[in-house]
Amino acid sequence: MKLKGILLWLAAPVVAAVAAGVISSIALLLSGNSPADAYNAMWDYVSTADSVVVVINKAIPYYVAACAVAIGFKMNLFNIGVDGQYRLAALFAAAFGAAISAPAVIHVSLILLVAMLVGGGYAAIPGALRVTRGVNEVVSTIMLNFVATGITAYLLTRWRNPAVPLQAETKPLPASGRIPPLNGFLEHFGYHLPAGTLLSGFLPIAVLVGVAFYVIIYRTRFGFDLRNSGRNPDAARSSGVSPKAMILRTMILSGIVAGLAGMSPLLTEFFKYGDTFPTAIGFTGLAVALLGRNNPAGIGIAALVWAGIERAAQVLPQVGVPQEIGQIIQGTLLLSAVIAFEVVRRYRLQLLVRDAAAKTAAERTERTPMMPAVTT
Amino acid sequence: MTATTTTPVEAPAPLRGIGRIRDEIERNKRLRIACLITLGIGALSMARVIADAPGLTAGTTFVSAIGLASPILLAGLGGLVSERSGIINIGLEGMMIMGTWFAGWAGYEYGPWWALFFGAFGGMLAGLLHAVATITFGIDQIVSGVAINLIAPGVARFLASEVFVGKADGSITQSPTMPHGIGHFTVPGLSDLFDRINKHEWFFISDVAGLLYGITTDVAYSTMLAWAMLPIFAYILWRTAFGLRLRSAGEKPSAADSLGVSVYRMRYLGVMISGALAGLGGAWLALDIRAYNQGQTAGRGFQGLAAMIFGNWRPGGLGLGAGLFAYAQAISLRTDANTAVLGLLLLAAFAFSVVALVLAIRRRIPPAIGLGVVGMASFYYYAITEQLSNQFVFITPYVVTLLVLAVASQRLRPPMAEGKPWFKGQSE
Question: Which residues of B touch A332 (CB under 8 A)?
């Protein structure tokens, strides 16, 4: 039974990966390319030390955004608004960080604080609408993503850097407001990263987010209530948990984490918010959260896989294959993973029911040996 | 119980004056809609005169608004058909993207009418994917929709890299330009007449003429098709046996199943028709610029979804919602957008104040005070500003949808079984 459990646990991701590989191979064959060559080139490229650093850097914002989404999912809340929340938070944080001066650690902390406040505050709107007016959060967060687009575009015209009149972007952060790469820190321990690569200094903060996510959701009373409200709202209510307060708190917590999602690019790479700032991190976060089954470790793997495919696909044009096959792989992986998880979940439920039925039947025969066993 | 049944029903006392008019309006739906439209145009006209912003009801504004409403309308209808069958469709945007690619390809290969056909086909393929995932495998409908939105741009880009790259004007982000666009139609005589009346800037009359000018001038055949779909699907869904079966699958699938309706088939059809309609909306966009262009849907699938919710899962309200989105877009595209936007702000200030007043009369004090404050703030902002950014127009329809949801969410009625996976033989 134990072995069967492990096999079942492994089945979904393996099936999903195989399905994604097969479908992508078909797409490659149809476009007249050899799947084997393409996959080999991708693997050779992504397994170099340079690529590993790049993949980790790419994965960090995805990971944080996915954590934000997953916190909502834990109580059946769909925070599709992570995208708007992180963009708004990044803009405010960038403008604030460029406007103040402070010693390094304090400066960065204040920027992070502003991002968390803006993200949490913006996520409080759909939370409040849901609690007071019964507005579905899926719909309201979709609307608020567009509203955020409008607000950021407007604020960028107000807060833009006058030194670069052709670009709509904020003033760059001063050095004290930036997080230095981890290269120097690793060199202390005699570990040298390949020349020309910078490992994002946001990595420890992202790990911290993951740990905090785990501790809060799985190891505190609040997290217990949160998961219970998601699984069985009625049971949670009768145990004295106010569903409304939980919804509002969860949305705000999700928004706070969402606010941090844009901080890795802002504080370690771009140092300003503008037209070139990465977009759609929130939507990638949704995909990564679904792929990672909403738990902190799974999301970590999923974020690395997602970023890895993105990086690996960049080599494809060199072997004459369209780079976009990477997006096909990601998409099919996501959809087949979601389907595989659901099928396995249902199969497990069936097994559970069958086991329970068999057990009760066995018990009955033990107690009353004269009665024939009930078979299903 | 017996006492009440024997008591004769007392006829209501005949009402007089305003009470009677109000009663009549409440009873007669057509009259109510006519009143609303008259009020709307009147308010718009007033805002135009006070803010001196002729762009608000210029004929050209309505020409572009009626066109721009088409893709939103089609996407919203797609959402309506799907959700009425019980499947939430967040993936409209992705289905629309598939529509734009297929339409771009078919448009330059075979011509504009094939672009419409293949656009619908492309959207339907994405709809089929959503149907398999949600109906056969029973995965969460929102998850599947989100996945489709993530997958579709990648698929379109991949297909573009395979098919469009290397052709004249073609690249990974766009298809070659279609040799022929779709035809446009202007009603001779009437169009000129309305244009002349519109230019006079008479109160109310010129504004109505502006709207009529929009309906009679330079209407693309694809736009006509889009608007024709609205009554067609209203008829199909509410006046045919098929429509009844489809809606019953979305309200109470087990009951429908017990009466011999195949819930699976209804839902598959609903989601595939939904995809086809969204794809048709994508085709409209491709035909509009005679090419597929990456990112040309620009959130219109979500706007369609918003319009449908705004319209309480009904075709009439959906049309109104799509019109609202398109009108805002048409305004922000004008060269004199800044004054027109100010006019809209004034209109919004009026609207907030009136709604606040109505709420106050109905003794719903907290929302009345809230809206009243917003209204006053809008008046104040109107008085102190000279120019207003386009971005405010961009967000207006979304904010209005949010407000409608916030104020009327208790009165909205989505299909009862939507969002829940259903399997034959399973109790609800």
Answer: 151
